[in-house]
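Notes, p. 3: input format for complexes.
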Amino acid sequence: MDERKLEPGRLVVASHNKGKIREINELLAPYGFDVVSAGELDLPEPEETGDSFEANAELKAVAAAQAAGLPALADDSGFCVEALEGQPGIYSARWAGPDKDFTMAMRTIEEKLQAKGAVDPDQRRASFVAVLCLAWPDGGKAFFRGEVHGEVVWPPRGTKGFGYDPLFRPEGHAVTFGEMESQEKHGWSRTTPALSHRARAFEKFSKACLED
Ligand code: IMP
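Output follows (212 residues plus inosinic acid):
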């Protein structure tokens, strides 16, 4: 683990996913980086051939750091449903198909839960997982993992956020991620602990690499 401090300057966000880039930019905003996304730099999108969130985050961060000659931060994340043995997990983006049809992907999850007779909340437990990898152009890297637990609701609720947000109600909250403004989904402020998987991973990254 290479947890050296990251000084303000250019930082690549190694993602081509608009929802993630927006959230990572919001989380980075207080720290004064000159943030540029992999898409803006025309960097190729590496194939996610890893078999874990860590492996895929590393693939993306290392490829971007090497190509750009700058530190790069990648997020690999997904939605894990307990009764489906953790699926879709690292395949969360793929379940939405080439058209990125998350209405279909959410319906697939519900159909699989129905097929298992999973109607009670405790049979519908799920979590979001995010692993951030910070890669340096000299080969150094560090990983930060965040998880948030809750349940699959049906029908999906809310039009905010992205991906599987409307399907997930975090523990201790009445509304889904799809019904939350992004500040509420991050949950992270000077007085409140992080809520979303991404903000929880980011909080660890920030403690290790951004704060004195
Ligand atoms: P990947 O990390 O690029 O492989 O894609 C992760 C996929 O997981 C995204 O395309 C979303 O479908 C899903 N996902 C990850 N984080 C979130 C989130 O915060 N809200 C909703 N869906 C998410």
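The two ends are 18 Å apart (CA to CA).
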